[in-house]
Write a structure and sequence with these properties.
By secondary structure, this protein is an alpha/beta fold. The protein is 41% helix and 16% strand. It has 17 helices and 15 strands. Bound molecules: pyridoxal-5'-phosphate. Keywords: Aminotransferase, Pyridoxal phosphate, Transferase.
Length: 463
């Protein structure tokens, strides 16, 4: 058997990786010609790779390492929990201390009467739960045909069959298997789709598509609307100010459930504990994962309001995961929440860092290739464009320029992702002012290099 260690030569590790490890959301064959970067350790806001490079992580892993890397407390809690009770299920009238403590804590933190938690191993699983739960809820109320879920194009709700069907990622849908009775409306992406409308007009128009859909499909057919308070994987799309108040009005008017997918927005990313608080909504269900454990252990779930929990709880809901409320993950999540709270990480991020980050990040709009730069709390994006005035797309295939820019970031030891031709950040909430300065200087350098390359290759052309 191969002995793998961090001390193996990088090329050897990359060859084994290319041969035997199938990567998510990747063209596997590509790893043969260009090996994956081997990340070996991390601390605070920094990663190190097998070549000894120190990298600034402006994505918090995959939007999840909210408290930063290297917190021994979480490792110690996991170690103690594994020795005490490494696993037990919660199916057959049993429970355990970590899951009880975590549930009670989440009920305290979540706004309003969101007091009940159904656990999953990930955000995708939790959204699969949500599909089944809202349908079961309406069936229990004698309305089994109220089973359509409305969601948004370019929304992201995960990668399992159910979750990807809720999501509106055309590349995922094109690969097949979408579940029935999900209806997609357009996203509130003013930059790309707003045309001649003002952002305010456009926000209203996009929200009113929900009302149109409910009326077309029939209120007696629509079970729920699901959305991310601020779209993450779709490119950090900050909706116009008019959008969420109008969605709220529509949800209040019609008898449908509102599911806020808080997998990214939750646990401080937008400056409050939950994105719902930032955009001013009170959902019936919130999907949680990622920042719940700061990514130190896999865990997700649905936080459910009193009325839905009562109706669902009045019958046998035939659904559950072996690892639901896993004791080690639950203990780690609870410790993560303790640190976020006691060290005032969310308040500090919001009050000390976010205003400076916003000022610096949004100033990137002065770069010749940047058309829009927007950030809310610690999630932000910039739109790359060949023409700021007309908000034009590049003539090249979407993502070509974004990829060039990401490559330059990677080469400059900055983790910043691209979604199409948008560059996105989601830094750990423990980012300091110095981290912000480093982020901006590396981002500017990368943008300059990408701009030079795009021009040299004749790609700085509007579609
Ligand atoms: C990442 C994500 C998910 C899926 O979570 P996984 O843990 O990857 O299954 C769901 N919803 C949103 C908004 C996400 O960003």
């Amino acid at each position: 058997m191969a002995q793998i260690s961090n001390h193996m030569a990088t090329a050897e590790l990359q060859a084994l990786d290319a041969d035997h490890h199938m990567h998510p959301f990747s063209t596997q064959a590509g790893f043969k010609t260009k090996g994956a970067r081997v990340i070996t350790r991390a601390s605070g806001t920094r990663l190190w790779d097998s070549e000894g490079n120190e990298i600034l992580d402006a994505m918090a892993g995959l939007w999840c390492v909210n408290i930063g890397y290297g917190r021994d407390e979480l490792a110690e809690v996991a170690y103690r929990q594994m020795k005490e009770l490494p696993y037990y299920n919660t199916f057959f009238q049993t429970t355990h201390v970590p899951v009880i403590a975590l549930s009670a804590r989440l009920a305290e933190l979540a706004p309003g009467d969101l007091n009940h938690v159904f656990y999953a191993g990930s955000g995708s699983e939790a959204n699969d739960t949500n599909i089944r739960m809202v349908r079961f809820y309406w069936a229990q109320k004698g309305k089994p045909d109220k089973n359509i879920i409305i969601s948004r194009k370019n929304g992201y709700h995960g990668s399992t069959l159910g979750a990807m069907s809720l999501g509106g990622m055309s590349g995922m849908h094109a690969q097949g298997g979408v579940v029935q009775n999900v209806h997609h409306i357009d996203q509130p992406n003013w930059w790309a789709e707003g045309g001649d409308m003002t952002p305010e007009e456009f926000g209203l128009e996009r929200a009113q598509q929900l009302e149109k859909a409910i009326l077309e499909l029939g209120e007696d057919r629509v079970a729920a609307f699901i959305a991310e308070p601020i779209q993450g994987a779709g490119g950090v799309i900050v909706p116009p100010e008019t959008y969420w108040p109008e969605i709220k009005r529509i949800c209040d008017k019609y008898e449908i459930l509102l599911i806020a997918d808080e997998v990214i927005c939750g646990f401080g990313r937008t400056g409050q504990w939950f994105g719902s608080q930032t955009v001013g909504i009170q959902p019936h269900i919130m999907t949680i994962a990622k920042g719940l454990s700061s990514g130190y252990a896999p865990i997700g779930g649905s936080i459910v309001c009193d009325e839905v929990a009562e109706v669902v709880g009045s019958g046998e809901f035939n659904h559950g995961y072996t690892y639901a409320g896993h004791p080690v993950s639950a203990a780690v999540a609870l410790e993560n929440l303790r640190i976020l709270d006691e060290e005032k990480i969310i308040e500090t991020a919001r009050e000390q860092i976010a205003p400076y980050l916003k000022q610096q990040f949004e100033a990137l709009v002065d770069h010749p290739m940047v058309g829009e730069a927007k950030i809310v709390g610690h999630m932000g994006s910039i739109a790359l464009t060949p023409n700021k005035e007309t908000r034009a797309k590049f003539a090249a295939e979407a993502g070509t320029v974004g990829y060039i820019c990401r490559e330059r970031c990677f080469a400059n030891n900055l983790i910043m992702r691209h979604v199409g031709d948008r560059m996105i950040i989601s830094p750990p909430l423990v980012f300091t002012r110095d981290d912000v300065d480093l982020l901006i200087s590396r981002a500017r350098k990368s943008l300059d290099e990408a701009y030079a390359k795009v021009k040299a290759e004749g790609l700085f052309v509007a579609a």
